[in-house]
Each structure stands twice: as structure tokens, then as C-alpha cells.
Specification:
340 residues, alpha/beta, Metallo-beta-lactamase, Chain A, seven-stranded mixed β-sheet, six-stranded mixed β-sheet, 15 strands, 34% helix, globular
Length: 340
């Protein structure tokens, strides 16, 4: 299979479902971001349904869920791929409404609580401090602080369950008549959960394997010296263990076939970016902020810069830890990179 195949050309309208495999239904919910929708999944379960991811916790999304609930016979459990607000925002509301259990990995469960509380290194100030050390100008830091203050995690995830069922990598999770194998990946989130059903030849990929955009992989303040891009590339390579014609159900974009092809595309995408960065570092050392234009060839607003900075640092860390770049802290306290 040399290219991706899209069995369903149209996304189901919000408030409706579309069957993509026996007992597997596709739902689309709107998002108030540039990435304007998220795909959620209903899996037929014993005596009801399991929900995989649940949208942000606002009135619009909950009203659309209510329209869907009028057509199904109850929810038995809520499964989260990861803690990000578009995936976890309604978890507590759904669990309480149906007396359902939350199932996810420990890393995602605990991170959701820590981020909601703005504890440890999960604060806007801590993230912006890392960005300043990587060359972001003070005026841009100020603009980003104002934007992020209006989009706090706890506003999009109003509550979060106080207990859960833990899923580990390799676990076989029985949902209704089918077994789903847990595939835990890293880089985009601490312990991102994907689920693969061999009988149906379907994988719920979450944000790990998207069809038309590359997953955000960023260095954050809680792990400022981390190498998340290496972790992501190692994790996404595991999709080669699945059949090439597996039906991939991503959180954004449309379901597709061609997992191996998409892995190769993503690997080549990042290799191209590494090459462009090394080319840009030939003349003199540069900071992550100075290299934003190399990785992102479009104007970036404050919200977009927040994620772009994290990605730029992640690419530079990859090169540094791979021995392809060196770095030094200047007299101004800014970290700059040069070719090794």
C-alpha cells in the first residue's frame, strides 16, 4: 500500500454516529481551536457502550453528547487515550452521569490531576521561563502569558475523576465481544494509550498516528531536559508491528488505512526538519526562538507560538542527544545550538 486510503470521505455531523467496524462508531465533536474538531469513539460493551475520549468540558459538547445518548443504551466505562483537554474534558461528567468507571494509564490519570491543580512544573510561568531561556523575546512571552491565562486546563476540564482502572502496555482489555491490546506510547503525552483489536483489524490511535498533520511533540517545563521526539519516533515505529491495512482511527482527520506508509512519512518529515535545522546552524549558533521560522513557515500567533516553541526545543534536543549538535548558554542566559 503506497498511499493512505480513506474509506469514509465525510466526517459524521456532530451529534450523530457512524459505524466504521462492527460495534465501533465514530463521533466528531467541535473544538474552539484552529484544530476545530476531535474524533471520539463508541465501542459496543457488555450491557451498553464504552466511550474512548470525550471532548472538552463545555455546554456545547455536552448537549451533543445528550443527543447521542438518546440513541444508545447507556455507558459502562470511559476510556482515555491521554490527558489533553480535548480528550479528557468530560470524563468526570460522563462517569458521574452513568456511574461508569474511568480506564486509562497511570501517567495520564495523574498528569490530568497535576495539570488541573497547576502543581509541580505544570504552570504557565514555568513553561514561559523555559521559553525565555531558549531565546523567546520578552514581549512575546508577555503576549503568550495573557493568552494562556484564558485557556487554562481546568477551564476545559472542569472536574476529573478521583479513581480509575489502570491500563498497562500490553494489557488485553475486553470490551464487549472483542479483545483490545493496549499500546502505550510516549513523546506526545506521558503514557499515551492506543488500543488494537486484531479480530476487527482496527487500532484506535489517539494522537500518536494522525493522517494529515504531525503530532505535537514538545519539551515542557516539567521535563526541561527531556528528549520527547526520540521517544515519539520510537513509539510510532511500533505501528509497523500491526498489519499495513489496519484501519487507523485517529483523533484528528479521517480514519485511514496505510499505517506503515504513514509511519514512514512521519519519519521522513522529521528527518527533513533535522536537515533544515543543521543547515540553519552552519553560519552561527542559534536559539530555538531564532529557528521558529525554519520549522514553521507561516506567521504564528501567541497560541501557536506556545506549541511551536516546545516543538523547536524538542527538535534541537534530539540533535543534541544524538551527537549531531552542541549547545552553550550565552552571557544573556539563552541556550544556543551549533552543529557538532
Amino acid at each position: 500500500m503506497s498511499s493512505l486510503q480513506y474509506p469514509w470521505p465525510e466526517t459524521p455531523p456532530p451529534g450523530t454516529t457512524l459505524e466504521v467496524a462492527p460495534g465501533v462508531r465514530w463521533i466528531s465533536m467541535p473544538l474552539p481551536f484552529q484544530l476545530d474538531h476531535i474524533n471520539l469513539w463508541l465501542l459496543e460493551d457488555e450491557g451498553g457502550w464504552a466511550i474512548v475520549d470525550c471532548g472538552i468540558g463545555n455546554a456545547e459538547t455536552r448537549a451533543l453528547w445528550e443527543a447521542i445518548f438518546s440513541k444508545i443504551n447507556g455507558v459502562k466505562r470511559v476510556i482515555l487515550t491521554h490527558y489533553h483537554p480535548d480528550h479528557a474534558g468530560n470524563a468526570d461528567w460522563l462517569c458521574k452521569r452513568f456511574g461508569a468507571e474511568l480506564w486509562t494509564t497511570q501517567g495520564e490519570y495523574l498528569t490530568a490531576h497535576v495539570v488541573r491543580a497547576s502543581a509541580a512544573g505544570y504552570t504557565v510561568d514555568a513553561v514561559l521561563s523555559v521559553f525565555k531561556k531558549n531565546g523567546l523575546a520578552e514581549e512575546r512571552v508577555h503576549d503568550m502569558a495573557a493568552i494562556r491565562g484564558n485557556t487554562r486546563y481546568s477551564a476545559l476540564v472542569p472536574e476529573f475523576p478521583h479513581s480509575y482502572r489502570r491500563i498497562l502496555d500490553g494489557d488485553m482489555v475486553r470490551i464487549g465481544r472483542h479483545e483490545w491490546k493496549a499500546i502505550v506510547g510516549h513523546g506526545h503525552a506521558p503514557e499515551h494509550l492506543s488500543l488494537y483489536c486484531a479480530e476487527l483489524n482496527v487500532v484506535i490511535a489517539g494522537d500518536m498516528l494522525l493522517s494529515t498533520i504531525s503530532t505535537n511533540v514538545s519539551v515542557w517545563s516539567v521535563d526541561p531536559e527531556g528528549d520527547p521526539l526520540r521517544l515519539f519516533l520510537e513509539s510510532v515505529a511500533r505501528y509497523r508491528e500491526l498489519p499495513q491495512d489496519v484501519l487507523v482511527l485517529p483523533s484528528h482527520g479521517k480514519p485511514f488505512r496505510g499505517a506503515h506508509t504513514r509511519v514512514e512519512q512521519l519519519e521522513k518529515h522529521h528527518e527533513t526538519r533535522f536537515g533544515e535545522l543543521k543547515q540553519a546552524l552552519q553560519e552561527k549558533p542559534k536559539s530555538a526562538a531564532e529557528l521558529l521560522g525554519v520549522l514553521f513557515r507561516r506567521p504564528l500567533d501567541a497560541h501557536q507560538t506556545f506549541f511551536a516553541m516546545g516543538e523547536a526545543i524538542a527538535h534541537l534536543h534530539y540533535l543534541y542527544y544524538a551527537g549531531q549538535a552542541r549547545r552553550a548558554v550565552g552571557a544573556d542566559g539563552v541556550v544556543r545550538y551549533a552543529n557538532a
